Amino acid sequence: MTSLKRQLFAWLIPLYVVTAIGAMLVSYRQYETNIGAFMDGQLHALANSHLQQLTLSKKLPALSPVDDDHLEHDGTPVVQFWDSDKRLLSSSRPMPGLTLQDASGPRDVDANGSWRVYTLLAAPVSVQLVQSSSFRHRVMWHSAWKSAEPVALLIPLSILLLWFVVRRSLHPLGRLVQTIAQKDEHDLAELPVDRAPAEITPLIVSMNGLLQRLQSAFTTQQRFVQDAAHELRTPLAALVLQAERLRARLGDTPHDELDRLELGIQRLHRLVDQLLKLERQEWSVHKQEPQTVDIRDVIKDSVSELLPVADRKRIDVGCYLPEASIIRVRVSDARSVFDNLIENALRYTPEGGAVDIKLGRSAEGPVVDIVDTGPGIPPELLGRVFDRFYRMLGQTESGSGLGLAIAQSAAHRNGMRIELQNRTDRTGLSARVYLPASLNSHLSIDS
Ligand SMILES: Nc1ncnc2c1ncn2[C@@H]1O[C@H](COP(=O)(O)OP(=O)(O)OP(=O)(O)O)[C@@H](O)[C@H]1O
Ligand SMILES: [Mg+2]
């Protein structure tokens, strides 16, 4: 993956280094000319002063010897006097191989080393000054480095500054990524363009276009499912009516075909209802705000609505709700969870069975257990029953296979979790609902 930050640094750091080296080379060239001319001027003045001294005193002056240290580190020049026959009369240091130059002025000479030699030809005695070239280069490099030093020191500083600026400039992009990551299929609101930098704005505008198209596609799909479900209801109601009339005409004589017809109509009714419920639930997430409720009230409402089913099947329903559990959830979602689980328990428990609903605590927080005396679910299918339209083979009870899928998605949206387990003490299913942390964990109120 290419990174803008990395690319920028990969280009800029070498650029800085090349600039610093370039600055140093240019400075060296300038110093070579300027300092060279200045040092040559000094040698010229020194040679002149020796010549004047010689003219005045009419004898060779005594020369203080120049050692290696002074020659190489201080740049002290060696002083030489030569006669008209190019014979060395006196030298402040032996310079083997070096002769008197043919013309006055400065020049570079190689003789057992590199030297800058300044010659002042005169009669009867000529003066020649010899300075170490390596000393002169050292001085020039030093000065060149001194002028490039600020640029070199600025490199880490400007990289730091650059890093900071790049980070700040890319911040809106990071914010945009975060906003998009937090979105789900229910939140297709447009992304804000106002504070975005000009470079990112076209991206946001096209994303907003895409979001709009998605929104309208979802709305069309939602409308289609709702319309289809509504349209199905009318002929279904007519079918129910026709079946009732047929039964009335046939009187009390048992009729298998009619029973099956009524069962089919019932299943179709249930399917349409569940489909509508699922569709509405998916799209109401952002419309309904979570509320603070005592979960016991939600459970009691579910149970009282389903009591007629229990009565019809003579199922003993036990409700143990010992203490209040105040949680924040969307009430319709919580109802959906308990309606589906309690309805399943009642539906799949044979006549005369028992269903117990218990509010208690686990290590993870408050839980509600819905325990029945039905056949349970084979362990390998415990995960599959949450799939949409999944029904166990050979199921005699009518249903659409959507109930647990509806309950599961409602639970997830509200920080709840459903776990199904077969009972170990006898046949039957135990459905456990893990609730969000209760807001009254310090209270203990008996119901
Ligand atoms: N308490 C239970 N005991 C035994 N089997 C169960 C129980 N609850 C669910 N099941 C099995 O899981 C399947 C899926 O359940 P789910 O509630 O999703 O659909 P359904 O009950 O068939 O239809 P509906 O959409 O009308 O609820 C059921 O068909 C049933 O086979
Ligand atoms: Mg069900």
Describe the protein's architecture and organization.
- There is one protein chain.
- The protein is of the alpha+beta class and 447 residues long.
- Helices cover 53% and strands 16% of the residues.
- It has helices at 4-57, 68-74, 133-182, 201-250, 256-283, 295-312, 331-348, 403-413; strands at 78-83, 88-91, 105-110, 114-120, 125-132, 291-294, 316-320, 326-329, 354-362, 365-372, 417-422, 429-434.
- Strand 4 and strand 5 form a beta hairpin.
- The longest helix has 54 residues, at 4-57.
- Mean pLDDT is 89; it is low at 443-447.
- The structure holds adenosine-5'-triphosphate and magnesium ion.
- Magnesium ion binds next to helix 7.
- This is histidine kinase.
- It is a multi-pass membrane protein.
- It is found in: Membrane.
Tally of extended strands?
12
Shape label:
rod-shaped
Beta-strand level of the residues, as a percent range?
15-25%
CATH-defined fold name of the largest domain: Heat Shock Protein 90
Spatial gap, N to C terminus: 60 Å
Please mark out the parts with pLDDT under 50 across 5 or more consecutive residues, or reply none.
443-447
Number of helices: 8
Question: What structural category arises from helix and sheet content?
Answer: alpha+beta
Rg, nearest Å:
50 Å
Q: List the strand order in the largest sheet.
A: 2-1-5-4-3
Topology pattern, helix = H, strand = E: HHEEEEEHHHEHEEHEEHEE
Membrane topology: Multi-pass membrane protein
Keywords: Kinase, Membrane, Phosphoprotein, Transferase, Transmembrane, Transmembrane helix, Two-component regulatory system
Subcellular location: Membrane
Catalytic activity: ATP + protein L-histidine = ADP + protein N-phospho-L-histidine
